[in-house]
Structure formats: C-alpha cells, structure tokens
Please model this.
Amino acid sequence: MSRTTGFDDFVRMRSTALLRVAYLLTGDRHAAEDLLQDVLEQIYVKWSRIHGAPEAYARRALVNRATNRWRLRSRRPETALARHDRTESDPSDDLLVRDVVVAALRTLPARQRAAVVLRFLEDLPVAEVARALDCNEGAVRSNTSRGLEKLRAALTAADIIARAPTSGGTR
Amino acid sequence: MTDTDIRDVLLRATDGLSPRADLLDDVRRGGRGRVLRRRSLLGGGVAAVATAGAGALWWPRDGTPELTGSWLLDEPTRGDLAENAHYLRQVRAAWQELHGNEGDQSVLLRDMHVVWAGTTPAGPAAFVAQRYTGAGVRLSMAVAFIEPTASGVKAVGSYNHTPGDPTMPCPRAVLLGPNRDVLLILDTDDPIRWSPSLRYAADGRIVRDYRPVTFADGAASLRVSPQGPKISIGLLSGTDTAPRRVDIVNAVEIEIATKGSAGGDAMHFRELPDPRKVWPADSEAGRAEADAWVAGPLRSYLDNGGYQAGAEAAAWEMHGCTPDGRRLAIRTPSAYDGTRRLLAFLGHQGDRVQVVRGDDLQPSSVLPIVLRLPDEQGVVIAGQDVSLRYRTAKSGWLPVTGEVALLPAAAARVEVKRKDGKAVEVNLL
Model:
C-alpha cells in the first residue's frame, strides 16, 4: 500500500464537498479552489500524522483560514463571483440563487457563516461543528441561530425562496 | 422560511461546483514541493526558496492591515549573541535569502526581528519573526529557526504563525547539527518537558520518562542522541491530563533526508456488524464518535510526545457492536519499530473501556487482522480484495459477507480466497 493511496481516495471522495464549503466560506470560486488546494497540500504533508477522520481536520483548517481571511499566494487573479461562474448549463434562477446566497453569507460574521454552512450545507451535528470551529456546542448554537436569522432576513428580502422551484423533498 | 428551505438554497448555490480535474495532481505536486523545499534547505543546496512548512505566505484579499502586538515581535532579542552584530547580520542575510524575492517582500511588513540568538553545542543559532500584511482580524507572522550549516547560516524553512490559531502554532523546537543531535527549544513561557527515548511495556503501552526543560535567557539547547531516520525524543507541553506535543520543525525532513520517505499512512475505514445499535446512524458521525470514545484509552498506546513516522502498512479503523451489545472499535496505532499494534476497544457507552491487544497487524498476510475478543464475543477478521468463509470445529464451511467480519467465538478456521482464486486457510484458535 503506497503512502498516497489513502490520501488519493480521501481527495477523490471528499474534495467536492469540501470545495462547496470553501466556496460558501469565501464567496469566490477561485479563492475557494486555492483555499482547498492549500489545505489539501497541508494535509498531504501531514497525512501520516493525522489520526482519525481527515475530513474533520480539513474542515477545521478551511474554517480557520477562511475566518482569518488570509489567502494563499494567488494562483490566478481574484475575480468576483458574480457572473464568472456562469456556464451553459446554469439556469438563470440558479445563478440568481447563487449570487443572493453568497451576498447574504458575506454579510454574516465569519464564525456565524461557518456555523451556518457546516450545519446546513454539510448537515453536520452540533458537536462536529464545534470541533471545526474549536468552540463549545453552546457557541455553535448561538452562532448558528444568529447567522440563520440574518440569512433568513436577507433571503426573504431577495424573495429567493419564492423563486426556488418546489422540490417537495427534504434533506 | 424553514431549515429545509435554507438547506435547499445552500445546496442550489453550490450545485454544479466540482473540483478541477487536475486538483489531485496539483495537490500532490504542491505537497511534495513543500517537503522538497524544506529538504533542500536542510542540505543547504538551494538558495532563495519562497516558503514552506505549515503554509505558504498568504496575503490579504482586501482592507487595511490591523496589527496587534506579540512578544515575538516586540521584546528585545534574547540569548548570548543578542549583541553580536556580526552574527545578527548573518541571520538577517539568511532570512533575506529565504524571503528576499519581490513577491515575499511585498507582503512582509517592517523589519525582521531576531527573537533569540545564542550559542548551542551545534554552533550559533537564532529564531526570527516578521509580521506580514493581513486584512483584519489577526496578526500573522512568518517565523523561522536559523541554523549553522557547513555552507553557512541558513533558515530551517519558514513557517506561518497566527497567535491564537491552533492550525498555525508558533514553532518552538528544532534539531541542529550534522547529526541532528542538538535540540534547541525556544522559551515561550510555556513549561515543556522532554524525554530522550521510549520503551514499550509488556501490554504494548508506551513508557517515557519526561523531565522538565530548563530555559536560560530565552531558549534551551540539549544534547541528544543522533536523530534520524527515527526520532526517539519526545517533547510535551500542557498538563499531564491534557498533554500537547511540541512540534520539532524539521522532524519530517530528517526522516525524509535519512530514510527517503516520511512513512505512509493509508487508512481503511470499515464498519463491523450492527454499528447502528450502539453508534450514530450516520457512518461519518459514527466514526467521529468512535474516535472520541477511544481517544482516552488509546492515548497510552500512542507516542503523544514523539515523532514517529507512520508505519508503511495501512492503518485500519473499524467500529461495530459485539453480540452482547457493547461498543466495539478497532485501532492500529503505529509503533516505533514500524509495525502496527492491533487493539480492540470494548464497552458500553459511559462505562470503562476495555482494551484488548492482539497480535501485531500482519500487512503482508491475506488476512492482516485476526483478533479474538474476550468473553466469547467472537473473532474480528479483515482482509482486502478477498472473499471469506469460515467453519467451526463441528460445522462445514459457512459464508461470510464482505471482507470484514465479526465471526462467532466458535469459529475455528477461515478460508481466504484471493482475486486470483488462490485460497488460504487461517487458523483462528
């Protein structure tokens, strides 16, 4: 078994989920990619020393770095999200949702944003979010509650839910 | 707007985002690059390398830097060479060599500060710090040890440090000298204890004799046995109940430079039977809870203050439920000799956890894990790319589903059939 087999599997299986977290934490596609790459490089170097679930380590590193607002040396010029990520298959409603959600998340303090993203995008239990944010569960509940309140207000103001197609399902 | 609505919009906002196809290649290239950059610095053969270690230099997205003080930057230089202008010029030159390129200088603020400069048994050494630009919330700095080498004074990599950020701690220890037999530790007002070597008790627990480090004028330098490829010393801060390993900044590089590899730790995560009876229904949550559950008793089997490279063999982590309804978790911590211990943890939630040690992991075996549990709770077996069946003393062959199983205590033999069709029988008694 090579040193990197487990690491490769980890990247293949988890990088999409981690990229989506990074994206909502940074609000910028390229910043998210750079952030994720840097965290994965850090994990690669430390792979033999990371005991337990590497994803928890990755989440914590993502949150810390996004919270600190440090950016890795730019691999590309930074671009605002806006329409940059439009693709042929992007329905305009989804683009609007993306813009509004990212703009709304940007109004939240970093730890509230992280708590909301990890609780509701990743569906993590409170204890796991507490690990990622390095705080107690009470602080997670408080940050989540406050963040949700602001996010709901912003999304309601943008009438975003009314625009969402009715999926009928829950997650 | 319900919680489900919030989930839906977050999912829609990220729907369609996926990593670049070349992400893994880039990560591996970048990760190796970091190791190699640090390794090249060890050999002193490469000049003007950007950065390495816990992260590359970062710069801000926007805003004006908000800088707050740090004793690393604000206090006078300590050490017996603090007034030695000639040596301090050499230190500055080594730092400039590392960070002198235009890109790095554009983000570094103010002058580099020599935190400590002093004499060690390996020669003169130093520790330096320099703040760099950042938007907003926290002060961050680039820090490095400066070491004597055959080709002059060199920086031992360069590391990001953000006070208060547990993922960017301040490096405090380095191994110096051509034989890496001098341990230099920076005094950060945090008591540190060290151990020159380790041994194993009969039950597999690690035994180390820790003694306090005595600092003088900002640092301590200790003679140790030559380190590499294995590093025998241990360094801890924190309390006895909550010890924290003090990283030696060049430990991994020493292993690589002397052994050619930093070891490997591929992991196999598996679920044993009926995990949901005693663990959270979600597999990831179950893993996390199992990690937390075994953390305390596992600590005795881990070299918490040491710097062992991971064993080359893959680790296994499993959790499930015993026939009598107890929690069961399997862990395979690596040992100093490069083998992996095989440990089973059993107990009801809230009760004392029982630890059972089996024979060490047999990575080259068709069945690397065979562990008979106490109290007639059965036999844990695990393999890869195999099909299994077992028999008792009185039965014929019975089927096994999957490659991992908890067989009944009466199981006497297991047949392991590999993909090539070759079958091997393993005795379980």
